[in-house]
């Protein structure tokens, strides 16, 4: 595999050329194919997805170049349209990022929820997500990236609040996914991550309610067992005598 900028040989696993510094594109990394079932990045020569084992039928789908700039690589690098199942995304052929509109991402998320595990396995979710969050290449650009539609800086969000997949989102326009973030987010949903989060939240609320019930409240003297009227009068007399002694010493 050679660098398309200078022709230098690419070192195995390298994200950029060691000779000219140019970033290798997803074409040079052999990751231009997206699984139609789980949307994971896979090798162009793969016959089956190595994530979900779905058979791969190669199709010519280069897509049209749009006027939208890549939030990660910079506005000068344009995004291409690409079909993802029944929806359409914008793809950067340099960093492998994907831009999905609000409705498109909602459609994919709803499909993943239908396929979600009924009984989530916390360990399986943790192990799968720890592997899925590993990036394949360094990302360029600022931490807070501009929306490809309105150019306003997008906010960073932890998808589902507990998935650990940090996404860039512009309310009303869409969400930006770095390489492997889309399939990681959908994998978290399919593994039952949302259900697990809901169960944990409900459990915490029950525990908080139980703590509130057993919390000791201050009691009035008349409510304290054994503190009858005579005791209270005796205690009052003793305190009064003490105050008189202290007052006499101060004088």
Intertermini distance: 99 Å
The number of helical segments is 5
What about the largest sheet? 7 strands, antiparallel
Query: Average pLDDT, to the nearest integer?
Result: 75
What does this structure look like?
With 251 residues, the protein is of the alpha+beta class. The chain has a domain at 62-199. A seven-stranded antiparallel beta sheet has the order 3-4-5-6-9-8-7, with helices on one face. The termini are far apart. The chain contains five helices and nine strands, in the order E-E-E-E-E-E-H-H-E-E-E-H-H-H. Helix 1 runs parallel beside helix 3 and helix 2 runs antiparallel to helix 3 (181-190). The chain has helices at 102-114, 122-132, 181-190, 193-214, 229-250, and strands at residues 33-34, 41-42, 65-70, 74-84, 87-91, 98-101, 155-158, 166-170, 174-177.
Give the topology:
Blueprint: E1 33-34, E2 41-42, E3 65-70, E4 74-84, E5 87-91, E6 98-101, H1 102-114, H2 122-132, E7 155-158, E8 166-170, E9 174-177, H3 181-190, H4 193-214, H5 229-250
Antiparallel strand pairs: 1-2, 3-4, 4-5, 5-6, 6-9, 7-8, 8-9
Keywords:
two-stranded antiparallel ribbon, alpha+beta, 251 residues
Q: How would you summarize what this structure contains?
A:
31% of the residues lie in helices and 17% in strands. The chain has a domain at 62-199.
């Amino acid at each position: 595999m050679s660098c398309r900028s200078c022709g230098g040989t690419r070192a195995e696993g390298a994200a950029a050329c060691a000779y000219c510094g140019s970033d290798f594109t997803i074409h040079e990394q052999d990751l231009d194919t997206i699984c139609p079932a789980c949307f994971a990045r896979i090798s162009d020569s793969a016959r089956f997805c190595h994530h979900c084992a779905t058979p791969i039928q190669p199709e010519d789908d280069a897509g049209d170049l749009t006027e939208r700039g890549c939030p990660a690589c910079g506005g000068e690098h344009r995004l291409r349209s690409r079909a993802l199942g029944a929806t359409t995304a914008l793809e950067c052929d340099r960093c492998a990022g994907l831009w999905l509109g609000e409705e498109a991402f909602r459609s994919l998320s709803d499909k993943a929820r239908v396929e979600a595990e009924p009984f989530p396995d916390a360990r399986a979710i943790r192990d799968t997500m720890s592997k899925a969050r590993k990036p394949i290449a360094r990302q360029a650009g600022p931490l807070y990236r501009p929306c490809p539609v309105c150019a306003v800086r997008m906010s960073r969000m932890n998808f589902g609040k507990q998935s650990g997949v940090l996404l860039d989102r512009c309310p009303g326009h869409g969400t930006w996914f770095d390489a492997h973030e889309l399939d990681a987010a959908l994998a978290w949903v399919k593994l039952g991550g949302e259900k697990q989060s809901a169960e944990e939240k409900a459990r915490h609320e029950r525990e908080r309610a139980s703590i509130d019930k057993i919390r000791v409240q201050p009691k009035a003297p008349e409510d304290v067992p054994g503190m009858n009227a005579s005791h209270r009068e005796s205690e009052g007399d003793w305190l009064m005598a003490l105050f008189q002694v202290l007052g006499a010493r101060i004088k």
